[in-house]
Amino acid sequence: MVLLSKPSSEQYTYVRNNMPITFSSSIPLVDLSKPDANSLIVKACEDFGFFKVINHGIPLEPMSQLESQAFKFFSLPQSEKDKAGPANPFGYGNKRIGLNGDVGWIEYLLLTTNQEHNFSLHGNDINKFRCLLKDYKSAMRKMACEILDLMAEGLKIQPKNVFSKLVMDKESDSVFRVNHYPACPELAINSGENLIGFGEHTDPQIISILRSNNTSGFQISLRDGSWISVPPDHSSFFINVGDSLQVMTNGRFKSVRHRVLANGIDPRLSMIYFCGPPLSEKIAPLPSLMKGKESLYKEFTWFEYKNSTYGSRLADNRLGNYERI
Ligand code: GA4
Question: What Gene3D superfamilies does this protein's entry cite (predicted)?
């Protein structure tokens, strides 16, 4: 990312913030080592579409190493990073998100999860980076399955792998993203304006697993439309309910609207594993969760939904097109 002395206001979005940013203490917390994890996950998905996971068993050290490698990549000269871009949709992206004019104070790598990426990451210890990425992606897939099995257990539905089998499938269309939000010291943090790093949106997939360094910026929207700041915690994971899970639970779980604000002092680095089903998978409410109720959604395949997301703007209510009136 070419650091601009002052982000030009025609391109970037700012949000008014009349109150200083305070961290919320109400984020649901799930301790994966405790027997009540399944019911707490269900409650969190109903109330927030979001929760934090601790005691996940994933060691911090390799994650920190991956983070250092990612920082190293983002500190390369722009011309080197551009060799891995443009994100189309995979590869290195800078400022532009998606295909329809969304812009943020961000640069990123968007990667597939079931193939090795074939673009060059020059200047980095490429083998080390690749190796760490591969291990991290498989740890995320494993954790996603554990969480999705607990979810099915908490919902008291069978089979237990009803959600996780979609992520375990070798055709699973999961993606991985590394986001770098450079510090923006010129930001008039205290003047009541915040620069948008990643604009508000819901994730289209089943769930997403996010891990970041200890820098703030991540916010979620509550059911009443207000925004709360999530305290950063580099040793925990944060889980977002995505649109596909909202449909599979016939609206019982709601996908969480979230966004990232740029930070005036510290760079933020986050890594997100988006758990997607196979392209041919029909996304529809699970019969075991219907109990005589009508489906709230028209049926679609993940392929159709994914295609429709690429025709949309970040903040759009993408599920709106699939709601039965
Ligand atoms: C949001 C969640 C994931 O980051 C992502 C994003 C994708 C992209 O960056 O290419 C999209 C966005 C995300 C939803 C709407 C479309 C597509 C950018 C955009 C404007 C990789 C995904 O799957 O959907």
Answer: B-lactam Antibiotic, Isopenicillin N Synthase, Chain (2.60.120.330)
